[in-house]
Amino acid sequence: xIKVANLxxxxxxxxALRDVSFEAPSGAITAxxxxxxxxxxxxxxxxxxxxxxxxxxxxxxxxxxxxxxxEAIARLGVAHVPEGRGVIGEFTVDENLRxxxxxxxxxxAEGIAEQFxxxxxxxxxxxxxxxxxxxxxxxxxxxxxAMIAQPTVLLxxxxxxxxxxxxxxxxxxxxxxxxxxxxxxxxxxEQNAKSALRIADFATVLxxxxxxxSRPAAEVAADDSLREYYLGMPSS
Amino acid sequence: xxxxxxxxxxxxxxVLGGAIAIGITFFLSGSNNQLLALATAYAITILGLSFLxxxxxxxxxxxxxxxAIGGYVTALWLQHFSSTPMVLTxxxxxxAAAVGGVIMGLPATKLRGPYLAGMTLAFAVALPQLPExxxxxxxxxxxIPLQTPTAPHWFANVxxxxxxxxxxxxxxxxxxxGILVCTxxxxxxxxxxxxxxxxxxxxxxxxxxxxxxxxxxxxxxRTLAFAxxxxxxxxxxxxxxxxxxTVSPASFPYVLSISLVTYMVLGGxxxxxxxxxxxxxxxxxxxxxxxxxxxxxxxxxxxxxxxFQNILFGGLLIVTMITAPxxxxxxxxxxxxxxxxxxxxxxx
Amino acid sequence: xxxxxTNRILSDVLYGIxxxxxxxxxxxCLVLIWRSTHILxxxxxxxxxFVTYIGLTQMDHGLGFWPAALICMVVxxxxxxxxxxxxxxxxxxKAEINPIVVMVGFFTVLEAVATAIWTNIPRYPxxxxxxxxFQAGGSxxxxxxxxVFQIVLAVGAMALVTVLFNYTKLGLQLRASALAPEVAKxxxxxxxxxxxxxxxxxxxxxxxxxxxxAINPSGMSPSMMDGIFILGFVAAAIGxxxxxxxxxxxxxxxxxxxQFINDYWNSNYxxxxxxxxxxxxxxxxxxxxxxxxxxxxx
Amino acid sequence: MNxxxxxxxxxxxxxxxxxxxxxxxxxxxxxxxxxxxxxxxTGTKTITIGATVPLSGLAALGFADVSKSAISVFNYVNxxxxxxxxxxxxxxxxxxxxxxxxGAGNDxxxxxANLLNTSGGLFATVGSLGTATQVSVENTLKNAxxxxxFVNSGSHYWNNPSTYPGLYGFxxxxxxxxxxxxxxxxxxxxxxxxxxxxxxxxxxxxxxxLQGLKNGGVTPNDSETYNATDVVFNQPTFKTTLAKxxxxxxxxxxxxxxxxxxxxxxxxxxxxxxxxxxxISGVGSDPQTVNNANENGAYSMTFLPATKLTTNKWNxxxxxxxxxxxxxxxxGVSAEAFSKNKYLNGNQQYGVAWSVAFLEALYKxxxxxxxxxxxxxxxxxxxTSFATPAVxxxxxxxxxxxxxxxxxxxxxxxxxxxxxxYTTAVxxxxxxxxxxSQALTTTKVSYTSPATWLH
Lengths: 236, 348, 298, 455
Prior knowledge:
The structure holds four protein chains of four kinds.
Chain A: E1 2-11, E2 14-24, E3 29-33, H1 40-47, E4 55-60, E5 63-64, H2 70-75, E6 78-81, H3 93-101, H4 108-118, H5 120-124, H6 135-147, E7 153-157, H7 165-182, E8 185-190, H8 193-199, E9 202-207, E10 210-216, H9 217-222, H10 224-230
Parallel strand pairs in A: 3-8, 3-9, 6-7, 7-8
Antiparallel strand pairs in A: 1-2, 1-4, 4-5, 9-10
Helix pairs in contact in A: 3-6, 7-8
Chain B: H1 7-25, H2 30-56, H3 63-80, H4 86-108, H5 113-126, H6 130-133, E1 144-145, H7 153-159, H8 165-194, H9 196-206, H10 208-213, H11 218-244, E2 246-247, H12 254-267, H13 272-296, H14 303-323, H15 327-347
Chain D: H1 3-26, E1 40-41, E2 46-53, H2 60-79, E3 87-94, H3 108-116, E4 124-126, H4 131-143, E5 148-151, E6 167-169, H5 174-187, E7 196-201, H6 204-215, E8 222-226, H7 230-233, H8 236-247, E9 252-256, H9 259-271, E10 277-280, H10 287-293, E11 298-302, H11 313-324, E12 329-330, E13 333-334, H12 346-368, H13 374-383, E14 406-412, E15 423-425, E16 429-433, E17 440-444
Parallel strand pairs in D: 2-3, 2-4, 4-5, 5-6, 7-8, 7-9, 9-10, 10-11
Antiparallel strand pairs in D: 1-2, 11-14, 12-13, 14-15, 14-16, 16-17
């Protein structure tokens, strides 16, 4: 479970997050939705300690993560797939995967085999440089690299960015499967609310740094005012 | 800076600045005027380096090489056509160094910072070896002597007097000539910076992706920046040749490139006044070091004393770059701000 | 057989290799620091020189060559790591030119301090290998025990560095820390520690290179690394700054080329040719000859 | 006026303020009366002279000993009553040989400006070191009317009285040195039919040295050059050249190399097991350099008494002076550090030689005139033959501004260790080469001794 309480983050004079509080329950997908600049990415970066909050707490189960270093949080089992996927282009697929396992007590060979089963295309490309992969393949690689560490929490930043609808659909489906089979706590940041709400259990809507709603996903999807004003989805 | 001034304002400012500087030469001793003349050469060179670094985001450790091109072209040209007016020789030297800049700038457009710095350093190492190998016409390690500008009679008549008058007058004349060239160079650069090209260069420095998106030709802009920078350094080298009275491989060792970077950073890179401070620092570095040695009580002849200048300025370079990258220009700006604040407080 | 061993062309190749491995070793250090922090260390030569002075001057007090060389390597490890912590760390998120300028300043300071402490009178540390060439049938060959030692050392160092980077977990983390520090952090890599370690390892290789230079005939002096550093940079840039093998191959090729220029043409042009080759290589392949042509960062 | 506009104004004002500060510092430096030459103070009876020399940087290796030994001499003579009561105030400025490593501002031009700016004026430069460095300021000094005495370099340029009447060289030039080597080689049975190899620096040093050899009738079978910077950037070239000589069967090798080049060449020969007879220019053959590199020793040329002659009057006097002034200094530069158990080195002897020459000229002028003048010193130089430590007379004339024009061959000792760092005379023949006609004559060696007023 990830619990965020009264979180405030500023970049100089600009307030990126104001008093944000919400919970992402264990074993479920919580979508964080909102327009561009709403503070979604900042939220994830703050959880991973890449950004330091002015005030507030972030709990992983009972543990307060504020004040810890990013690598220590990663070692606790929080995997963060950053915006733009964070795949290292100069590394081969294989090397990217090996790097994913490096800080964790897991069996590398087994982990890689497992990921190749999940994403067969990566096995074909394993000697290729990540820079030569397509966008969808890179997203798969990023997720596979995160999963190889057998995390308990997965933070996904805009996995659908720049992908074709079909590819987005496949990725989202895989995320849902992973969540269910591994009892993963997933925090899914998305601008593409429709795809996210399709697989999410809960949803939090951010608007200019403020959390304006935290409800089950189905309720958010059904709320016309939220959809129209904050998520840019026309009424169905 | 200076992007919001009009051409007329810039002309007035340049004339005013040049006039003030020339006025000062009347109060200086001969030797200080001679140093001032050399300082103008360094200031122009540092302006070139600063142009590249501050205004296009690249750094060169090879500007002593471009200085050498300017200096040698001047000396060689005057050897055969000694009656050429100085203005023409300076233009020729500038153009030659700019051509060198284009050649070096071609690979530079594709290179990231460290590659460029290393490549230019290698250039600065190799170039001074040329004159020794090219045969007697290039002067060898002896170098090529040339006539320093001599004060015309009317000037000596106006200024003259005292037993050392003739040399003192010549030095003052040299300083004035240097200041005039310097003023023109600074005026041109300030214009350039306010121009469309200048804006393009800043955009390339700040965001090369955005620059390409708005349709700028990235390689051409960078090569142009490199060529202008090299040309200015060549002009500096030409002025150096005139003021020094000789050019030789020993005048442009590769370590000079490192000194130039040092004085540019300490003066304040990317600013016009920083280049002026840098040029003055370059010629007065020894006096400054001696003064500090005396004040602190370092034996100037001890092993430490002899190496103190490099320790001092190298250390200052590190500290400046880490804590105050805007150098002396930034510091003066800061002090000015403080003074203004204090004054406005008093007014209230 | 004797004729073959003393053949002029073969001799030139062997001399070229001997001179080139030293260039290659310096290039190797540059590659090491580049791959582990993405900084080109312009003070690398003086840093290695300084460390070598600390170690090899212990021979004045009766210490043997090997323990003194070991001291060089240990001090190199510590000094280089400390430099990263104190001087380089504040520069990681600054413009690309900041670390270049700072390291240029460090270059100046280190050389001046070394001259202040040890003077610029050359010293001649005695290596446990003879520099007298082997004889074959009464005439000298182009190899000496010292040369063989230098070649073995350089190839060994290059192999170790290659294995380290390409086949070990440590190497993977070092490279990741340099290429994408933030991503590496998110994967649990202790990036700060690795950046320091990367410099420390380069410090050891640098110390080895400087010891090899110090036992050469021209001896040890505060400016002993200046020339070799520039050649080393040219080699590293031609090799591509990414590849240890490329660094050594480019270094040795340069050594051989310069030897042939010295022998068959005019030594006065050797440096110029090196720079011209560098310019041409960088124009045609800005990423160097041995770096695989990948797109830059994603 | 907008912000940017004002900023330029501020820049210019600060420059003005800075320069004004400098101006006040430089005011009032012109000498008051014109009755005496600049640098001459009849009140304190001192005469101020100066020199630009390398005190730090690569070229200071060895060469710094020259001006420091001169300081020892001036301090010693000043302390013993001076020259007819006149004391010498010697200002040494460090120019790093224009090698830039000292930073901009330490170059010869700037330092010469500082010398000219000396309060009370500068009488003359004496003992400035280096060909290229002196060439870079010779016009400045000429225009300022300052005599340039005893330039420390073996270039033949100094012998140009028609263009530079106030310029005087000191040492035997490289042309003469080459001719002496050639003459000795041709006169020695074991060497005269041997193949000769030549390696010289790619500048006037090497060019003149090679020309001198040819003038003496020895045309090398192979002659090679190296760039001054090769000792840093292309060290292998020395080995390549020596290997070439070896495979060509060359038995005599003449080196016109600076000390670092000598080291590289001799070590290369050692590595190759190559043992030719080396002739090394006096510039690069100090015993310490030769000692460290090769146990086979070498021939060289000197115009000073061989250093093994510890009982030679001049060597003994020099040792006495250097020992007495050990630890003193003048104008912030210390005298030569010297401990008695060492042999003199050539640079120390050399610095003593030209400083004594200046004192001799000063003695001559003050004995007849009382107050030294520039023209008096110059006419003393060209009209008299001085006894200096050199084994040849310092014979300036209206057509010869070279100074010393000969020397003898010495053997640089071969065994290693400070106890073996000395030179011995090869024989008693002294060569003289006329700097204008290049004609060579010989005499038997005779050593002079210091004047009594030198104490």
